[in-house]
Amino acid sequence: REGILYYNLVTANSVGCWNSRTYFSPRSQGIVEKNSLTLNFPNDLKIDQEPQQSLWVLSNRLHKYLYSSLDPGEVNFRLLTLPTQEAVRGTVCETGAKVPEPVEPKCPAKH
């Protein structure tokens, strides 16, 4: 509803965001959360349709399963939730946040 795109960063154990009402560049993208324990392999996410929308993230240890090193004595699956307004608070994805201007590539002068 707010034009925010959320995406998983599986290899970085984090969830990112981009406000689609801004230009697309690395500077206009934020990190909602990064955690090597609770977001270990965040492989799926969803935004619900409730009036107060929430971001739902499924995190698991699929990579450990694939390499036959899954430990049944550890927490191997997590379902995490966070209200979307709270998720983007303090990031460049927050509505009204100042997004840094894009940097123009500097080409070396030709001689």
TrEMBL record:
The keyword Cell membrane does not apply. It is found in: Secreted. GO terms for cellular component: extracellular region. Keywords: Secreted. The keyword Translocase does not apply. It holds the Pfam family MRJP. Gene3D superfamilies: TolB, C-terminal domain. PANTHER family: PROTEIN YELLOW-LIKE PROTEIN (PTHR10009:SF18), PROTEIN YELLOW-RELATED (PTHR10009). Belongs to the major royal jelly protein family. This is Protein yellow. It comes from Graphocephala atropunctata.
